[in-house]
Amino acid sequence: MIGRLLRGGFMTAIYAYLYIPIIILIVNSFNSSRFGINWQGFTTKWYELLVNNDSLLQAAQHSLAMAIFSA
After folding, report:
1. What φ, ψ does residue 28 adopt, rounded to 5°?
2. Distances from the Cα of 1 to the Cαs of 4, 8, 20, 24, 48, in angstroms?
3. For residues 44 and 52, what is the distance between their CA atoms, to the nearest angstrom?
4. Engineering a disulfide at 28: which of 1, 21, 36, 56 sits with its beta carbon 3.0 to 4.6 angstroms away?
5. How confident is the model over 12-40, as pLDDT tens digits?
6. What is the pLDDT, as a whole number, of residue 26?
7. Which residues are CB-contacts of 28 (< 8 A; sequence separation ≥ 6)?
8. In the prediction, which pLDDT does 21 show?
9. How far is CA 9 from the centre of its chain?
10. 39: Cβ–Cβ under 8 A, 6 or more apart, which residues?
11. pLDDT over 90 percentage in the chain
12. What is the pLDDT of residues 35-54, one digit of tens each?
């Protein structure tokens, strides 16, 4: 019983170690501040810049085409 609880606690700690930074990154991606040190408000500005970046979209299209043709 103790081994089972210990294993469950260990796995919870591992998953927390892996997923908490990802959650923090997602939350901070909506921060209007350029740096994630302090929260300055909610915005989707960074995603708008991402979608409007033509060279980045072209690179993504080329990568997708290469993935499809190589499969």
Report:
1. -70, -20
2. 5, 11, 28, 34, 52
3. 12
4. 36
5. 999 999 999 999 999 999 998 887 778 88
6. 93
7. 36
8. 97
9. 25
10. 31, 33
11. 66
12. 777 888 899 998 999 999 99
Could you write out the three-class secondary structure of the chain?
CHHHHHHHHHHHHHHHHHHHHHHHHHHHCCECCCCCCCCCCECCHHHHHHHCCHHHHHHHHHHHHHHHHHC
Q: Whole-prediction pTM value?
A: 0.67
- Asked whether the CA dihedral 33, 39, 43, 47 is positive or negative, the reply is positive
